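User: Okay, second chain of the day. Same drill as before: sequence in, structure tokens out.
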Amino acid sequence: MPAGRRRYKTSAGCQVFYLVLCEAVANHFFPGHTFFMSTYDLICIGAGPTGLACAIEAKRAGMRPLVIDKGCLCNSLFHYPVNMVFFTTPELLEIGDLPLTSAAEKPTRSEALKYYRKCAEHYELDLRLGHRVERVEGADGKFSVHTRDEQGIPSQFAAKKIAVATGYYDLPNRLGIPGEDLPHVSHYYTEPHAFWRQNVVIIGGKNSAAEAALDLYRNGAKVTMVHRRAELGSTIKYWVRPDIENRIKAGQVRALFETSVKRIDEGRVLVSSHSGETSLPADQVFALTGYHPDFEFLRSMGISLDPETNKPTMDPQTHESNVPGIFVAGVVIGGNHTSEIFIENGRFHGKQIVAALTGGRLHSTTGV
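Assistant: Same drill. Structure tokens below.
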């Protein structure tokens, strides 16, 4: 080696940091252009608990993952009702072998959000939040994921493999009736304060509708539930069911069963039942009729869906879809049957996917 010259050895972490920095600088000064500094081993589309679990398992296996989401971290949980309490106990929500602690027997929305933030921090996950995936191109081993951020700036990322864990909470099951898009109609319930002493109509009879009705009633709203079935849904939490049934029996919450909504107007809702049509006063309407995965996004990548259930074609052991190199995880694998997959069992899908990618053997499929 010539005198005066010295060779420096850089760590793998420094090299990755340098590549990411170069990519960020290039995208800032040349938006809309493609600059591949490196290829990710796995891109996880969706930053909910399942997507995070996939990325964590990949990183623990020595891979380089990237997580992309159009919203914030755990965007669906963030949009849950503010005072929501989970159905399950803390250990069944854990990912990455990190403990979740809660003040009570069941964790709250706030505690879960804090926990998943800490998981992302602990494993130093590479995240692109606020990036909507517009399309996925390429083939196994050389995919390109095209995104657009909240400022409209496009980006492109390269990946050997893709894991789709986009959940379902972003797409409500629409009623398809006149007035559904009026300003006082929402498919999401957050908190009750703004509806004190107001007439609120809740469309639906399952868990979210029951919990919203109770919360609104206890905070001074005048609540009417409208449900097309003859009784409340069977999946209502066991501690919520007697509460809502007793409120209905006492007349504190009005419930109209075997009743359908025909249209929504400003300040009222027209409903129909065996006894005819009735107009209900409504300062606010919550259409809590469930949600569904983004089936069109799955189809756009070439993933085949069952014509009746919309369940994607996949290997049940590896979770690889009919498109080589694209895996599916979480609630999207349930198709129309979104109640089949929860965080409790979806969190294990990352282990199965990474075991398939690394050639490892999955010793336990508990919860799957």
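The chain has two domains: 12-171+292-358, 185-287.

User: Thanks, on to the next one.
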